[in-house]
Amino acid sequence: MENLIIGNTHPELSVILKYLHFDPDGEQAEVAEELYAEAKMIAAPKTLLKTVPVTLTEETVMLGDIEISYPYVRKMLQDNKFVAAYVSTCGTELENWSLAKKGDPLEEFIADAIKLNYLYASQKPFREYVKNEIFDKTGHLAALNPGSLDLWPISEQKQLFRILGGEEYVKEKTGVVLAESFLMNPTKSTSGVLFISDVEYENCELCPRLTCPNRRAKFKGA
After folding, report:
1. CATH of domain 2-206
2. Whole-prediction pTM
3. Using an 8 Å Cβ cutoff, are 177 and 187 in contact?
């Protein structure tokens, strides 16, 4: 099953100001409010989602017809019959809009935060859709993301894009382009596979970057 989800969930301005550490009554907040109003007019976050079967081999795991050779991925997915592979992005609309803000450090800084918060805002309804409609509300929804851990390195973005139909197809549907470094553009994009776990799990539990602003769980060690 494949879906393209166009997000219409806008982050609250108050959330963006808090992220930026701006005084809501200050001059910087006024600039942020103006840019936020511009962004709301054009924002169209997108998520390409594909449900694929999981097949275990002796040492690897097949996601659809793509083989993943990393033992950690096999271990985490071994109890799942299928997973939901995805690429989510703030959208090329916001990306192109933000590029026009270069040259003004404050506006560039704010525009970057707005893009990130649009990506964040799109994830909650997307994950609720996956949990309720694809996995039938059972278990804990967990994610594996190429590059979040060395156990599944960022070079595996190539494989993930192949699962979703290939780089050209992902670009056609979402505008997301994979660079030679395996980073995505628009930069405020994320990718991975969602699956069901018997226990709550986040990649953050194994990531030693303790000061990461996006941390969702305490570090528990490898």
Report:
1. 3.40.109.40
2. 0.87
3. no
